[in-house]
Write the structure tokens for this entry.
Amino acid sequence: MAELFEVTELIKCLQFSCSRDQSLLKAMEQAGKRCIPVGCRGGGCGLCKVQIRSGEFDCGPMSKKHVDEESRRCGQVLACRVYPLSNLTFEYRPADALASVKQQVQ
Ligand code: FES
């Protein structure tokens, strides 16, 4: 059985388990939690963009329109394309809030 990691969304304080072969979005849906909006589930629409705050993860392919290289380096990634390698904490904020977070990091 795949190792499970604890994943915590910091704004709503929601926690669920996620394996390394499961995306954050899929794990959230399977756990019956609602802290990230669900769209295409394929890295194309940008709805599920989150800010990773701690932990290690892998990323699958995602639209550069929604996540450019700089955003990715800052931990702003699409939850449907993020696979945890450790316990993770992250925040979901509407797109405008994420843009301001990006500016603060620069
Ligand atoms: S749900 Fe569309 S990019 Fe993640």
